[in-house]
Amino acid sequence: MSLMELSLDTTDEAVDWVCTLLAEIIDINDIQITKYIEQSQPKLAKQDLAHSPWTFTIRLHIPYDLHSRVTIEKIVNLLSPLHRTGLATTIQTTVIEAKSTGTDIHNPLIHRIGKRFVVLAPDTSYQSQTTDEVILRMQTSLAFGSGLHPATILALQLLERYIISTMNVLDLGSGSGILSVAIAKLGATVLALDNDAIAVQATQNAVVQNQVEQQVKVIEGSLGVGSDLGHWMGGITSNHVSKIESQPTFDLIVANIFARVHIALANDFKRSLRPGGILITAGFTSDHEENVVTALTDVGFEMIDCERINEWVALAYRLC
Predict the structure, then answer these.
(1) Keyword tRNA-binding on this protein (predicted)?
(2) Using CA of residue 172, residue 139, residue 109, residue 232, what is the dihedral sign?
């Protein structure tokens, strides 16, 4: 049976959003993400390609039948806000006889972050280039944090710099589980905490996929007053979400979450770290930076490091 292939190009920021939106209509495991290349937009002039904002191409497939037009209209309407705001191109459609799979997928995504991290799809064939590379195999999921969003990249860059194998680490708002897996592969032990059931399952799947079950414990819950804030992204939390009391048990906390949650949890971060502990905050843009820094320095943190991608920022602090 023939298929209709739909494709669009996106920025770093849009990948997670596109996947989440598309999951309302199609099986998320059928989404293919590859590096953007010139052929994705052959009509662009050479001078425009040099300044292209696109970094990834997303492809999906639907049956080419009487219902195709209706499905395509739904997808176009669903993704139109991303196009209007400049985060994605318009959708292109092509009729094909069979979709590419496995090694036939054009330009499979190999995403390098920092000096050591390499993010791959679970079935991507890859030969390590150096002995100290850290391979993170991540399945597309509905949870935030694919490894393609700037906030996740920034958090990984700081984690690479500060994780020591003897550390006990809290990954607050674990999302897809990519940060927990990265921390474990650097040798530390991790408590992965998220108040969203989908994120908890995605984290657990990532832990198993990357064979770090012995180092990562995954819990559906929140830290301290975080349990009073409800679902941080506006969703629904279940009744059995655990509240983790703030006690000085962690050497490092990483939180890739909204600025308002960082601010609300400032005292809980302080009470949960051992003396001299490290806090890495990400998930917000520079327009929220001053408020986050003020809230954390007011309770005794000293900012020691920073990474930026465009308007996105991640900050590292030491507990004085």
Answers:
(1) no
(2) negative
Tokens 């809290």 correspond to what residue? Answer: 170
> Within this chain, do residues 85 and 178 fall inside the same structural domain, yes or no?
no
Q: Do 156 and 98 fall into the same domain?
A: no
What CA–CA distance (Å, rounded) separates 99 from 61?
A: 7
Per the domain annotation, does 120 fall within a domain? no
Domain containing 24: what range? Answer: 3-104
In a domain, 230, yes or no: yes
Single-letter amino acid code for the residue at 248: P
The string of DSSP codes covering 160-174 is HHH--TT-EEEEES-
What pTM does this model have? 0.79
CA 40, CA 106: separation in Å to the nearest integer? Answer: 11
Alpha carbon distance 69, 113 (integer Å): 39
DSSP state of 56: E
Q: Over 90: is that where the pLDDT of 309 sits?
A: no
Of 104, 133, 156, the one marking the end of a domain is 104
Q: What is the pLDDT of residues 63-88, one digit of tens each?
A: 888 889 999 999 999 999 989 989 89
**Quick one: pLDDT at residue 271?**
96
* 114 closest CA partner among 59, 170, 178: 178
What is the rounded distance in angstroms from the CA atom of residue 176 to the CA atom of residue 50?
Answer: 32
Give Cα separations from 91 to 49, 78, 241, 273 (angstroms).
18, 11, 39, 47
Q: Tell me, what amino acid is at 198?
A: I
- Which position has the higher pLDDT, 17 or 70? 70
Q: How far does CA 297 lie from the centroid of its chain?
A: 27
Q: Do residue 196 and residue 289 come from a single domain?
A: yes
Identify whether residues 297 and 250 lie together within a single domain.
yes
